[in-house]
Design a protein that fits this description.
- By secondary structure, the chain is α+β, with helices and mostly antiparallel strands.
- The chain has one domain (about 30-140).
- It contains 5 helices and 8 strands.
- It has helices at about 5-20, 35-40, 55-65, 95-105, 120-130; strands at about 30, 45, 50-55, 75, 80, 90-95, 115-120, 135-140.
- The strands form 3 sheets. It has a 4-stranded mixed beta sheet. A two-stranded antiparallel sheet has the order 1-4.
- A hairpin with a 5-residue loop joins strand 2 and strand 3 (about 50-55).
Amino acid sequence: MAFSDDGQAMNKNILVKTIQTMNQHLPNKRINLTELLTMEKPGIKGKDNTFFIMDKAELDLISKSIPRFLWSRLRLPMLIEMSPDYGSGAARVQGEPEVELVAKILGKDRPQAKQIIIYLPEVRELRRKLPTTTQYAFVTNLRERSVD
């Protein structure tokens, strides 16, 4: 059954709204590790105005896991991007300091890319070790896929 362009546009709008709703917990702005380490109550406010406190022991673990020169570039909470585009049970983490941290925490070789794809068991391990300094972000690619 073929959809009209209006139907496809409406379906995309529904999808976009659903994803926005699923991401309401995400912060408007993330804070770097250097700044968080100086805060008495390290944390961040989400778009929905909830305040997420970050555990100082986690921040200490993170600071011991990556070189000091990356502290000002590591933005927290670290986003674990969930998308069907990465394959079943896969997630992506982006950013050079973020990739270095994920590789270190999971005991993986550090890829040279500025992103790393991790799979469900690794996602669970990362969230278990860093529950207050990581958050899920839901993303999707809305571009048309060509069928060859």
